[in-house]
Amino acid sequence: MGESGLVPRRGGSLVSAPRDGSRAEKSDRVPKERRVGSHGGGADMLERVFVRPVLVLLAAVLALGAGRVSAASHRTANFVIEAPTDGQARKIGDAAEQYRHNLAVEWLGKPLPRWSRPCPIKAQVAPQLGAGGATSFVFDAGEVFGWTMTIQGSEERILDSVLPHEITHTIFASHFRRPLPRWADEGACTTVEHPVERARQHRLLIEHLTTGRGIAFPEMFAMREYPADVLPLYSQGYSLARYLIERGGRHRYVTFVGDGLATDDWTGALQRHYAVPGVAQLQHTWLDWVRQGCPAPPASMAAAQPAPTTLAQGPTARGQSPEPIPAPQPEPAGPQARPVAMAAGRRSIYALQARRIPDGGTPTDRPEPSAPALAP
Questions:
Q1: Of all residues in the chain, what percent carry a pLDDT higher than 70?
Q2: Phi and psi (nearest 5°) for 10?
Q3: 143 and 129 within one domain
C-alpha cells in the first residue's frame, strides 16, 4: 500500500516503519496517519496505526518475538487470534468478544454489528514483555475495514489493559468512521485500562504540570498531529476524558465528540453538552479540579455513571504495584501567593492570573490560556 516513513514514539524518538507494503508491527501507541492511493484509482484511504508505549527496548522486543512463533490459533465471531498456546488464544478471543460487546454498550448504548471480516490479533505473551499494542484499520468513503491488531505483554496485562484499550479504538472507528482528535481518542481509551495504568497516567500528569510541559487546551483541541513531546498529550487527554465522563457519562462524551467533529466548533459543543463557555474556561475549571486532587463529582453525577467493564474471572496477583500518586496540594488563597511556573518558551496560566487579576480582571475576561501548570 505504498511507502511508509518514520513512526513517532511516545518518548519522541523515531522507529522505521516497513516499506514493503506490510503493516507496522510494534512501536509505541501513537496513531500514525498516512494517505495512500487506492489500487483502483479511487479516493484516498486513511490508515491509522495506534501504538502504545512499551517498557522494553524495541530491539529486545523484536528479538523475543522472533524466537516465539505463535503456536495456536482460535477464531471467534469477530477475531482470529494467534498466541503461543491454545489456552491463551482462547482466553484472548473470549475477552476480546466480551470487551467488544460490553464496551460498545457502555460507549454507544448498543452492541456493534458483526464485522464483515474478523480482525486478526497476533499476541506475544510472556511475563517479561512490556505491555503494548498496535491496531490498524482503513477509512474509505465512510467505511472502515482492514482490521489488524498486535498485542504483547504478560497475560494479565494484556487482558486487563492492552486489550480493552485496543478494542475501544475499534469501537470508536466503527462508530465515527473518521479519525478522532488525538486527546479525545487516546484519553477515552485509557479510561478503560486497569487502575494501575490509569494511576501511572495521573502520576505523569502531575509531573508534566509541575515541570512546564502542559499543553494549552486551545492548542490541544486543535491538534491534528502528535507533538514532539507526546507524553503530556496522553496524560492530559486521559485526565480531561475522565473529567468529562465523570460529569456526563460515556454516552454524552461520545455525543460531544461527534458534535465537535461534525461542526468543528468545540466551543459550541462544550456549551451544548457540558454548559462550559469554551475551551479556555474548560482549562481553568479542569486545572482547579486537578489542583484539588481530582475529587469525585457530586453524588447525583456519580450515580448516573455505569460500572466499569471487568472480565468475569477470579482474583489474580498483579505483577506490579502502582507508584504512589503525589496529590497536588491546594494553593494558598489569593493570586499573589501562587508561584509563577514558567514553561520553556511560553508563559504559564499562573503568570497570566498574577498579572491580570490585580488590575481588576475577572475569570470571564482572561485571555486565552497558555500551558496549564501546577506549582512544583
A1: 62
A2: -60, -30
A3: yes
One domain, residues 19 and 165: yes
| Helix/strand/coil for 16 | strand
Query: Do strands 132-140 and 45-51 pair parallel, antiparallel, or not at all (unpaired)?
Result: antiparallel
Question: Could you give phi then psi for residue 222, rounded to 5 degrees?
Answer: -90, -5
Alpha-carbon span 152 to 81, nearest angstrom: 12
Q: Are 280 and 369 in contact (CB under 8 A)?
A: yes
In this structure, the chain runs to a length of 376
Q: Is 212 exposed, middle or buried (0-12, 13-18, 19+ CB in 10 A)?
A: middle
Q: Which amino acid is at 24?
A: A
Classified as helix, coil or strand, 137 is strand
DSSP strand pairing (72-75 vs 45-51): unpaired
Q: Report the distance separating Cα 293 and Cα 210, nearest Å.
A: 14
- In a domain, residue 53? The reply is yes
For the ranges 28-37, 156-165, 201-210, the lowest mean pLDDT is seen at 28-37
45 backbone dihedrals φ, ψ, rounded to 5°: -110, 145
Amino acid at 211: T
* Single residue among 271, 304, 337 that ends a domain in this structure: 304
Q: How many domains does the chain contain in total?
A: 2
Which segment of 30-44, 155-169, 203-217 scores lowest on mean pLDDT? 30-44
- DSSP count for the chain of H helices, then E strands: 13, 9
Residues 188, 253: Cα–Cα separation, whole Å: 9
CA atoms within 13 A on the CB side of 290: 31
H or E segment at 132?
strand 132-140
Cell of 95: 475477552
Res. 85 pLDDT band, cuts 50 70 90: very high
Sorted by sequence, the CB contacts under 8 Å of residue 288 that are 6+ apart come out as none
Alpha-carbon gap, residue 47 to 43, rounded angstroms = 13
| CA–CA separation, 200 and 190 (whole Å) | 11
> Grid coordinates representing 163?
486489550
CA–centroid distance for 35 within its chain: 22
Structural domain that includes position 293: 180-304
Collapsing DSSP states into helix, strand and coil, what is residue 76? coil
